[in-house]
């Protein structure tokens, strides 16, 4: 069980990461590849990416095994994308490398580290560079072709949970993070592989949605690092198909790029104008104007819910996205 201890200051500083974290997705997707579990959801993806796995992947899987402790330095928090994260990775201090490799040995007694990790523990810039280069090769070959789907799913999750926060407060958010979640102020308890307490001590908590996280939330091992809780999200069927990752070019030519993006986002659920604007990168005023046009074309429907308006794609809009002829009444 993981017990996260909050103060009132921590609740004020708790926030969502609005985008997927590349390094977390790299490491957790490696777990999915190694464990070969969740076949219905990830099996088609594994089959698609298997021929593209880069050489030297052992550099990553040795430090990020399918089960057990993964070295914290593999998931640096910079908030500026993969390139900034691997730059931080190349500069991890020797003392931290040595300490985390020692932790790896204690927490994973059945696993033996390769001989090259002795150089890593000594702070080898060459080994760190190889790890960073392999991370980029893996991301480009395995994750980048699906990053649109990953990004869209994470943004949708944040939009829905932001709405839940507005209506029910943090209690409503925490209660739905995971089936095991139990919120009894000041402690959030969740199912976890080990028994661990995390005292936030005024630092707040970053809630990081993860596309490849599957069974339970995860967190960093070192309590001195920035507190983050990585939690699993829902997926749309067929997400691994390339056509599901972005607005179709032909549809963009027909409707315009902004309206095609809005229609695709609205096909994944019902969202407010502000949420759709955030999902598509439009300003709220532009999103509202384009939604009016889509509604006039019967591609989007809108309805009031409490004090806001929710928009969703109609059957005609979904048919247009899927490139099929809609069913017409007899």
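Sequence proposed for the structure above (330 residues):
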């Amino acid at each position: 069980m993981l017990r996260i201890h909050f103060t009132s200051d921590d609740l004020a500083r708790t926030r969502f990461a609005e985008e997927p974290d590349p390094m977390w997705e790299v490491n957790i997707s490696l777990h999915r590849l190694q464990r070969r579990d969740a076949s219905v959801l990830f099996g088609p993806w594994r089959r698609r990416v298997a021929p593209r796995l880069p050489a030297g992947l052992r550099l990553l899987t040795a430090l990020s095994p399918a089960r057990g402790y993964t070295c914290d330095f593999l998931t640096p928090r910079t908030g500026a994308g993969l390139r900034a994260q691997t730059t931080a990775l190349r500069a991890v201090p020797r003392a931290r490398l040595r300490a985390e490799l020692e932790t790896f040995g204690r927490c994973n007694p059945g696993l033996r580290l390769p001989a090259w990790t002795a150089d890593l523990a000594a702070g080898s810039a060459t080994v760190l560079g190889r790890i960073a280069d392999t991370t980029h090769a893996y991301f480009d070959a395995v994750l980048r072709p699906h990053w649109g789907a990953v990004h869209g799913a994470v943004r949708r999750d944040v939009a829905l949970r932001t709405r839940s926060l507005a209506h029910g407060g943090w209690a409503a958010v925490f209660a739905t993070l995971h089936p095991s979640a139990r919120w009894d102020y000041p402690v959030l308890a969740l199912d976890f592989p080990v028994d661990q307490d995390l005292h936030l001590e005024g630092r707040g908590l970053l809630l990081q949605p993860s596309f490849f996280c599957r069974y339970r939330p995860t967190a960093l091992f070192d309590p001195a690092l920035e507190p983050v809780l990585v939690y699993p999200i829902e997926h749309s069927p067929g997400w691994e198909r390339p056509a599901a990752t972005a607005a179709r070019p032909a549809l963009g030519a027909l409707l315009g790029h902004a309206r095609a993006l809005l229609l695709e986002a609205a096909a994944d659920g019902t969202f407010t104008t502000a949420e759709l604007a955030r999902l598509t990168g439009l300003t709220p005023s532009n999103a509202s104007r384009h939604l009016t046009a889509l509604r006039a074309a019967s591609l989007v429907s809108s309805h009031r819910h409490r004090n806001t308006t929710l928009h969703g794609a109609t059957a005609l809009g979904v048919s247009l996205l899927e490139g099929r002829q809609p069913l017409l009444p007899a």
